[in-house]
Amino acid sequence: MPHSHTQPPEGENAANEQLISKPETSTPLSSSPQTPVPPVEPVRPSTLPWHKAALLLPLLLIVLFHALSLGATQFAGPQGWSSLFGGSGNINNADLLKQIDRQLRATPSNQTTGTQTAITPEQYIDTILRNMPLDAKIGQMMLVQFTGPTYSEDINTMINQYGVGAVLIFSANGNIIDKAQLKSLIKQMQKDSAIPLSIAIDQEGGYVDRLLELDGARPSAATIGATNNTEEARIAGQQDAKDLSAYGINTNLAPVVDVDTLPISEMHSDERTFGTTPEQVTRMAGSYLTGLQASHTVIGTLKHFPGLGRSAIDPHEAIPEITTSREELESIDWAPYRDLIKHNNVQSIMVTHEILTAIDASRPSTLSPKVIKGILRDEFGFQGVIMTDSLTMKAITSYVPQSQAAALAIAAGCDLLMGAASVSQVASMIQGIKQAIQDGTLTEQRINESVRRILLMKYRMGLLSLPKG
């Protein structure tokens, strides 16, 4: 795509501004947000005859006693009380794909040949979309995490009630104990999900080696880069894919394609980059990605756009401000992204939280249409999945509440939202998105665009298969 300095449309800016406010004080959030209901004619109140009320009262007391005895989860099911009182309930339709398969099999056959008309992946995904309620679509946009090594009530609820589309396995959260436990955990999560989950992990090697205790040490990007041998990089990617797929992990949040330009940056000190020049990073990261994705069972994620290689600040703690000129960003920091998007079958890119004064001095890159739409989509022509770095980082939470950050990230062009680590955080983010749709600052069509990309990525990694005729 041609280089563009055009500003986002005035209407888009106005809509996005409506979403921004200072962090609000804590207010209760319902797990099933209110939706507008049409006005109804007032009705005359009626009274229940005393003798009928007397008959109903013991029945109600029995129901209440039974509920208290069993507890909310057993009485109301995994979705909780909302299902009993008109809430969102369980939107994870376990038979969704089977129902769609039956629909497609029932379509008229080719009149001339008597055979079923072949369906394309895009047509199949559009059919899935048409059969998904809004809540299920928003759920697909959630990349969540949870605490502990077992299939806990939290992750059960995230999958069964909210239909989340992706789960992050994180050793710091205690998700990894041993090989058998990890395989069993992932298998249970997939079993309960109507649409197969993206199971993600940060497996970079070196300092960021989440599977160290299970599979032994893997080399860092800096170690691989220092060999200047692209075959070494390809083999490292191939080995990581073999390790991950053995557990059922299908998404690696790697390779890092930040260019190491600042010796005091975290990327440098933790040896997380492949080199100090865009050419070296492009060659080595590209070869690693080729090896990682060769089996078509694991996809990689380029990170951390627009680049942390020149930042001395960790977005976990504060928001970095990059004052580098656009020309230098284009020629150094962004060069690997541009080249890899063109030549290396990139499926996913992670955007981090930093202020680029040359592009958008008012918003973190994760929430900036100028960065995401203007550069990644329009200038680089990237049509794959764009995910956020964690929306729980202080670089974001000091700017806006998490619920608003979710809506702003989508408005900016992000597809997959990382960060929710509890049921309440998932509910908060979903409520923020639905509120933005109610306000007109987001549309369901915009949600459809993201979910279409996510489902197409799942098809490409083998999680979704075309129905057989």
UniProtKB/TrEMBL annotation:
Recorded protein name is Glycoside hydrolase family 3 N-terminal domain-containing protein
Q: Which GO terms describe its molecular function?
A: hydrolase activity, hydrolyzing O-glycosyl compounds
Q: Which Gene3D superfamilies match?
A: Glycoside hydrolase, family 3, N-terminal domain
User: Which segments show compositional bias classed as Low complexity?
Assistant: 21-34
Q: Name one Pfam family in it.
A: Glyco_hydro_3
Report the family membership: Belongs to the glycosyl hydrolase 3 family.
PROSITE patterns hit by this protein: GLYCOSYL_HYDROL_F3 (PS00775)
- The regions listed as transmembrane in this protein's record are 53-72
Give the span(s) annotated as Disordered.
Answer: 1-43
Residue ranges constituting the Glycoside hydrolase family 3 N-terminal domain according to the UniProt record: 134-455
